[in-house]
Amino acid sequence: MTDDKKICLVTGASSGIGFAIAKVLHADNHKVIATARRKKRLSQLKLDPGDIIAGDLNSPDFQDSIEKYIFNKYKKCDFLFNCAGMIEAGTIEEINIDKMTSMMKINVESTFRLTYKFLKRFMKQGFGHIINISSVLGTKIRPTAGAYAATKYAIEALSEALRMELTGTNIKISCIEPGLVMTELHKDWKIHPKESMGIHEPLNVEDIVNTVKFIMNQPDRIRIPRLMILPRDHNV
Ligand SMILES: NC(=O)c1ccc[n+]([C@@H]2O[C@H](COP(=O)([O-])OP(=O)(O)OC[C@H]3O[C@@H](n4cnc5c(N)ncnc54)[C@H](OP(=O)(O)O)[C@@H]3O)[C@@H](O)[C@H]2O)c1
After folding, report:
1. Which pTM does this prediction carry?
2. Mutate to test the pocket of ligand 1, among 17, 229, 236 (most ligand atoms within 8 A of CB)
3. What does the alpha-carbon distance between residue 2 and residue 73 come to, in Å, rounded to a whole number?
C-alpha cells in the first residue's frame, strides 16, 4: 500500500469482510468512512465518530448523505469498497422469496446505485478505485443458489462493462471472488456450507484483506478486473 493517506468508504463495515477491511485500512493510517445499519458494531472500529455513518444502504437519501459527507469533509474519495450484501439460498420448496428479493435489492440495486454515484465523482476528480466483493458464484452456478449467483453475475457484468468504459483513465474497478469465508453471512443456515461442502478450512477475513492489499499495491498502469480466491477443499 502506498504511504499517502487514502480516503476509503467501506460498506458492510459492521461485520465480516467489510469490518476486517475497514479495521486494517484504519490501522494502516488511511481515512476510513464506515457504513452499515448496526451503529454499535461500527463503533467497534474506533474511527472518528463522524466517519461512522449508520443506515440502510437501500435508501437513496441515505446514500446521498454519505456522498455529501465525504465530499464536503474530505473533498475526494480514493476507494469505494462494496462489501454490503446478504445471501438467501435454498430449494424451490424452502427458499424465502421475500428474503430473496431483499438480497437482489442490496446486492444489486443498491450497490449499482452507490457505484454510479461514486463513479460520477471519480470522473470529476480524475481518479478512484472501486473494489467489489463479488463471489466465486459470480463465475459459477450451484443448485439452490441461482438467485445469489445472479446477484454476483450482475456485479461482474457491470464491473466488466465499466472497466471497458474506463479504459485509459485513472479510474479502476476490481472484483474479488472469494469462496467460502468464515463470517456472519451464513449464520442463519441450518447446515453451514463448511459442512455441506466439506470445506475443512474455509477462508478467513484476513485472506480477503491480503487480497485487497495486493490489489491496492499495484502500480497505476495495472488493472485487476477480477481475482478469485478459494479454500483448498473447494471442488465445485
Ligand atoms: N462469507 C462468504 O463466504 C462470502 C463469499 C463470497 C462473497 N461474499 C460476499 O462478501 C460480502 C460481505 O459478506 P460477509 O461474508 O462479510 O457477510 P456479513 O458478515 O454478513 O456482512 C454483511 C454486511 O452487509 C451489511 N448489510 C447487509 N444489508 C445491508 C443494508 N441493507 N444496508 C447496509 N448494510 C447492509 C451488514 O451490516 P448491517 O447488518 O449492520 O447492516 C454487514 O456489515 C457480501 O457481498 C457477500 O455476498 C461472502
Report:
1. 0.97
2. 17
3. 22
